[in-house]
Amino acid sequence: FGDGAGGDFGRFDSALVAMFRLTAGMGWIESLPWAGPDGALQYGHVLFVTSYVVAVNWTLLQVSVAVLLDSFVTARLGSQREPEERAAEERAEGSTMRSALDPLLDRLASDFVDDADLTARLRALFKMLDSDDSEGLNSQQLSMGIKKLDFKPRIHISDSDFAIITQGGALCAPGGRLGPAEFEVAMRRQLRNHLQRQLNTALWAGPMGRAEAVQLGALKALFLEQMRAHDEGARRDA
């Protein structure tokens, strides 16, 4: 339009100002009249101005505003969630003191079917660890036996781990060793503690629906009650 509208489009800077005024909704560009002197419609001028308004003012600007608003809302929600997520992670970490036996306990927790099946699995495990058939495991024998199991990374049991597993030797048979019965009691307690940690982790893992929280809480209560009943039965048998 440089020839017919030199006032607005004769130079780049004046054309830029004219297009900015059109974008800002300041009215029709006077140097591009929509009708000629005879009243006939100037199709070229009308098509250019209307297509520019539709493409830029009604489309691109609206999309840009929507994208900016979406980015702002997302960033705001993210900044609000971060402290909550960090707090949930800290609570979960605080409630999940890991055990050296966790890989083994994970396997047991996922594989056993019922109480009798768990007893059978623990007895079979004891036989695997009791390589010299002495019917007893001390700290060194337990550590060496578990190292041979197919776990990656390997499970390493230290003397302090053995003390924790046996509750400072309280669960050991005379002589400070774990017999088959003592081993089962110790492993059941370790499995109970492990499952409690997993339930705590699930409860504190992050936002969840009220129904999920109630279900997990009920599951934890039932689990604790079952384990308490089992411990009382074991004490009566003793």
From TrEMBL:
Superkingdom field: Eukaryota
Name recorded for this polypeptide: Uncharacterized protein
Organism lineage string: Eukaryota, Cryptophyceae, Cryptomonadales, Cryptomonadaceae, Cryptomonas
